[in-house]
Amino acid sequence: xxxxxxxxLALYAALELGQxxxxxxxxxxxxxxxxxxxxxxxxxxxxLVRSGLIQAVxxxxxxxxxxxxPRRTTLLEVIQLFEPMESTVELAGTAGAAATPVIAELRxxxxxxxxxxxxxxxxxxxxxxxxxIERRAKASxxxxxxxxxxxxxxxx
Amino acid sequence: xxxxxxxxxxIRNAGAADLDTVVRLDRETTGIEKRAYWQEAFARHVAPxxxxxxxxxxxxxxxxxxxxxxxxxxxxxxxxxxxWVFALNVARGLRExxxxxxxxxxxxxxxxxxxxxxxxxxxxxxxxxxxxxxRSMGMTSGPYIELEKRIx
Lengths: 156, 152
Ligand SMILES: CC(C)(COP(=O)(O)OP(=O)(O)OC[C@H]1O[C@@H](n2cnc3c(N)ncnc32)[C@H](O)[C@@H]1OP(=O)(O)O)[C@@H](O)C(=O)NCCC(=O)NCCS
Known about the structure:
The complex is a heterodimer. By secondary structure, chain A is mainly alpha-helical.
């Protein structure tokens, strides 16, 4: 699976805003935090507003706020706003008789793959993803220096 | 959204008196009454000796409102011992209040105490709610894949 740039930017924004749904952030805030182009992100943000996932807050200190429920919005719902997730098995032009059963079988296999893809992407909510990211960050953080007391605790 | 801690929930081992509730909760979810199946499950998991079999019940105001059933399975297709969850259910009107999370956490604690460090389950690929629940508990696809075929 190759996640396109638009989907990735949308996920950065959705995760950032979904983390604290009450919080407002500007495109510039999010772009700076993730080191991405504010121009490209602005386009993605407009698309997310049109889809109802986030809302634009007007006025002083305006920006964007999460509009849905991050505990129920799934990865698939965000990604498929930017790219189709279904496999396509076809060749331009008309297929010969021998090709028909090959294509049919390959479509059936692609269907299996798509069903698994959906079972993964449509069951991971933004909250679940945020929790996993937090766990990963914690696991890779350097462990705090051991205290003298901890060092004394040795198996008898 | 789960309103966690909205009411107190306690977790205990299932007892023979829970059979009717379990049969009812399962019927309400699946639409099929499987009394004989559950009687057998109770004989294996509720009556001692348990031999690595766990049947936990969640109670609210003294009434059973959910359950989780698991067993320790060892060396199936070369897999070291793991905790295998084969049933989980919460009363319809009480879902999304964190009850299954409490049942799951308790189950993990019991498995850990028994020296088990991996938990597995099998969920219908189209069952979004069950899959979302296990995902939210941090579970991911495992190293096995289920395969099947109609026997001709
Ligand atoms: C799956 C099930 C056990 C979850 O029980 P629950 O008590 O509602 O679960 P919790 O409240 O602890 O939810 C924990 C997480 O699971 C996920 N989840 C639960 N219900 C969900 C739903 N309807 N949609 C999406 N995700 C859901 C969420 O991530 C939730 O976390 P949150 O607090 O951030 O929202 C319950 O829905 C159920 O009994 N379903 C039927 C099970 C079944 O098919 N049994 C038959 C075979 S035995």
